[in-house]
Write a structure and sequence with these properties.
Elements: H1 2-9, E1 18-28, H2 35-43, H3 59-67, H4 74-83, H5 95-108, E2 115-122, E3 126-135, E4 140-146, H6 153-161, H7 174-189, E5 201-206, E6 214-221, E7 233-241, E8 254-257, E9 260-263, H8 271-274, H9 288-299, E10 304-313, E11 323-333, E12 337-347, E13 352-363, E14 372-384, E15 394-406, E16 426-438, E17 442-456, E18 461-476, H10 480-488, H11 490-497, E19 500-511, E20 520-531, E21 549-550, E22 553-554, E23 558-571, E24 577-590, E25 642-655, E26 658-670, E27 693-704, E28 707-718, E29 736-741
Parallel strand pairs: 1-3, 4-6, 7-9, 7-11
Antiparallel strand pairs: 2-3, 5-6, 8-9, 10-11, 12-13, 13-14, 14-15, 15-16, 16-17, 17-18, 18-19, 19-20, 20-23, 21-22, 23-24, 24-25, 25-26, 26-27, 27-28, 28-29
Helix pairs in contact: 3-4
Length: 745
């Protein structure tokens, strides 16, 4: 620190001092209500900002001076780009200008005739400034009333001022007056005042009637406000161009439906389907809220590229009390059909490597009602490239998934879509079939089906509800090797026996990360998965003491709940640096027809989206130690019905699209009931904190406009599978390389 101090000092020009900031001292002849808030607001005008400090050192300034050298070096150039700052000297401060601004702010708050003085406090190489404010007693309101205005504006403004938050003895506050002016304008806009503007209003304070710092406040209309701004507007006609082409504005076919004109040369979306998304009606007063809701709901259909709502004033029908608007809604469709192909090179932690090909065909308006139909196929082949007896083991996967999305609610009873002002729920149906063959182990045939709804309650909140969620799994062609695995692990065998799952899922998401400009972003997702309750009413016990069956299939019965919390703190220049944190908790409870949760529903820990210092599915459960857990393992089953994880990561820019990261992860899985296969080491206890797998590492991220390719290298420093006295050991020489697409949290 002594060397650092000397290096800063020798670069300061002669006759200059580093500016270290300003303080405000308040002296008042009366009690100031909310004085701390007033002081905080006044501090926002202090200029300039001094150089930042870290642990008492001007690191940004230090690297600025380093850059002044003839050959600063790559590291100094990079650090200067990240945290470097130009010096702020005492000569940069304009105290008289700041004094004027402080007095102005005090007057805006009602403290008229206050004074402001300043004085520098100088040291050897530093200087600060103190502003001393002598604040007088503020002016307070006696009465608030509106001045004369033309009708019908006067009557509508009078109704709003009766709801005003302004109260007698309220301190004069210009910012509150601006907010009140905006509030009145917003409320009047909802009543049809299409051409009104908050700047058309003005507040005047009259102190002539009092000699004790009281005033009367009047709301007036500025002079020369146009007549059309003082009357409401009503919608006379709504034209919906349902298949609008910017290159061709000639339309011939018009269909009248529900008091709207639907204009389209060729049928794109049937008016009866499109109409429920439009909250505007002929005869309604103009409302910006209804206009925004209509635009948002139409854009959520998924069939349109652009939604543009324009209003045209009909001057020939203008009267002294009412204006007329014609509404034109222009809808530009997306390309109806699309084909997407993806070729992937996949490598897994169990040394399986190979190509995957996925093809997706989409039709964004399959039944002329805005429906989206997707059909996807995927083909994958993987082979295990390791030495030993397992060399050449392969895996073949074939999949087919169809999805049909309706941009409306399909329900036996008609639901009023006006309830969903922000966006209308979508009905999603999907059917999938997947074939997996793992050589020398087994063949797995699985089918899934879902029916449910998803909708946005507002910009941040999303709901997903699937009342029908069915999956069927059939295990066949099992080899002697795999049968031996099942014979040794009854827990695993039972989870594969539950071939039929029928239940419902519900998910709630609150996501502030949609706001990229927010420095503090919070994310919450909670999911509830319940299966087997309704079907248990139809289940039959075919063999005494054995689980019930439905249509000859043993079905699963369980409840499972997940909680995923995330917080991102964005800071630094352009908020390019992020401190990301995450906490995950999940619990599954088998009951009724099940002793264990189906294998596909169990939790696992480790991998690129979990605890990155451990391979996928290799962590836990609990303190279990699988001595055979090495590169020759072809099948891992280290799962549980309880999962806890916590992650923290610091992300920072390097150059261009390249970003760096330093992170630490902790987590594990457990079972609520001990399993003899795991020697009882898998049971969740109050000592779970000491059973967390922990690791740390660094990463390189390639972020191209939100598409992220991620390389993370991590090493464990706490391994719960080891003896209690040997768990803390930073194995930096045994790192795990993770490759993934997208951020882990």
């Amino acid at each position: 620190m002594i060397l650092y101090s000397c290096s800063i000092k020798k670069h300061i020009p002669e006759g200059e001092r580093l500016y270290t900031g300003a303080k405000i001292e308040i002296e008042s002849d009366s009690i100031i209500k909310n004085e701390d808030e007033l002081k905080t607001e006044l501090e926002t005008v202090l200029r300039p900002e001094p150089n930042s400090k870290f642990l008492g050192m001007h690191l940004g300034l230090y690297y600025y001076y380093k850059m002044q050298k003839k050959n600063p070096g790559f590291l100094n150039r990079w650090l200067y780009k990240q945290i470097g700052e130009k010096p702020v000297y005492q000569s940069s401060v304009e105290p008289f200008e700041i004094e004027d601004v402080l007095r102005n702010r005090l007057e805006n708050k009602g403290f008229f005739y206050s004074t402001a003085t300043s004085a520098f406090e100088e040291k050897e190489i530093e200087a600060s400034i103190n502003y001393k404010l002598k604040i007088t007693e503020p002016y307070k309101m006696e009465r608030f009333q509106i001045d004369s205005m033309p009708s019908p504006l006067y009557e509508d403004v009078k109704k709003e001022t009766d709801k005003s938050p302004f109260q007698k003895s309220m301190r004069f506050d210009l910012s509150n007056m601006k907010l009140e002016r905006q509030r009145i304008d917003e409320q009047l806009k909802k009543k049809g005042y299409y051409n009104l503007n908050p700047d058309f209003f003005i507040f005047e304070a009259d102190t002539n009637q009092y000699d004790n710092k009281r005033f009367d406040l009047f709301l007036k209309l500025k002079a020369e406000v146009p007549k059309k701004a003082t009357i409401p507007y009503r919608i006379s006609k709504i034209n919906v161009f349902a298949n609008y082409d910017l290159q061709d504005s000639t339309y011939a076919k018009t269909e009248r439906f529900n008091n709207k004109n639907y204009i389209q040369d060729t049928l794109f979306i049937k008016p009866k389907f499109l109409d429920e998304f439009i909250t505007l009606n002929e005869g309604d007063l103009y409302s910006p809220e209804n206009s925004k809701n209509t635009a948002r709901r139409l854009s959520k259909i998924g069939a349109y590229k652009y939604v543009n709502i324009q209003y045209k004033e009909v001057d020939s029908l203008l009267t002294d009390s009412l204006g007329i608007l014609e509404t034109n809604i222009f809808l530009s469709p997306l390309t109806k059909r699309a084909v997407r192909a993806e070729l992937q090179a996949v490598t897994k932690s169990n040394n399986y490597t190979g190509p995957h090909l996925a093809l997706t065909y989409s039709n964004r308006n399959v039944f002329n009602g805005g429906e989206t139909f997707n059909i996807s196929t995927n083909v994958g082949y993987e082979s295990q490239f390791i030495s030993g007896d397992n060399t050449g083991l392969s895996s073949v996967e074939l999949g087919l998934t169809t999805e049909l999305i309706f941009p409306r609610v399909l329900f036996p009873v008609k639901i009023n879509t006006d309830f969903f002002k922000y966006s209308i729920p979508k009905t999603k149906t999907s059917i999938g079939l997947n074939y997996l063959n793992r050589s020398e182990l087994y063949t797995l045939l699985s089918g899934t089906g879902q029916f449910g709804y998803s909708w946005n309650a507002n910009r941040f909140i999303t709901y997903q509800f699937n009342p029908i969620s069915v999956s069927y799994t059939r295990l066949s062609n099992t080899t002697a090797e795999f049968e031996a695995i099942l014979d040794e692990n009854s827990y695993l065998q039972q989870s594969f026996d539950q071939q039929f799952i029928s239940g419902m899922t519900f998910s709630f998401t609150y996501n502030e990360m949609v706001d990229a400009n927010d420095p503090n972003q919070f994310y919450l997702n909670t999911t509830l998965d319940v299966a087997g309750n309704s079907i248990s009413l139809l289940g039959k016990e075919t063999t005494s003491g054995e689980p019930k069956e439905f249509l000859g299939l043993q079905y699963a019965q369980y409840a499972k709940a997940d909680l995923d919390l995330r917080f991102h703190l964005n800071f630094g220049k352009d908020r390019a640096q992020t401190l990301a944190t995450r906490l995950f908790a999940g619990y599954g409870l088998p009951y009724g027809n099940s002793d264990v949760i189906p294998y596909v529903k169990q939790y696992f820990s480790g991998g690129p989206y979990s605890v990155r210092a451990f391979k996928t599915r290799s962590l836990g459960p609990g303190t279990y130690n699988d001595d055979s857990n090495n590169d020759d393992v072809t099948y891992w089953d280290q799962t549980g019905n309880i999962r806890l994880e916590a992650n923290v990561e610091y992300r920072f820019p390097i150059v261009s699209y390249f970003k760096g990261a330093v992170f630490a992860d902790a987590g594990n899985v457990w079972n609520s009931k001990s399993n003899s296969v795991f020697d009882g080491e898998d049971k969740f206890t109050s000592n779970f904190i000491n059973e967390l797998g922990m690791g740390a590492g660094f990463g390189l991220h390639i972020d191209v406009q939100g598409f992220v390719i991620r390389f993370d290298l991590a090493a464990p420093f706490h391994d719960p599978s080891l003896a209690p006295g040997k768990r803390f050991d930073f194995k930096y020489d045994e790192p795990v390389l993770n490759f993934a697409i997208g951020y882990s949290f």
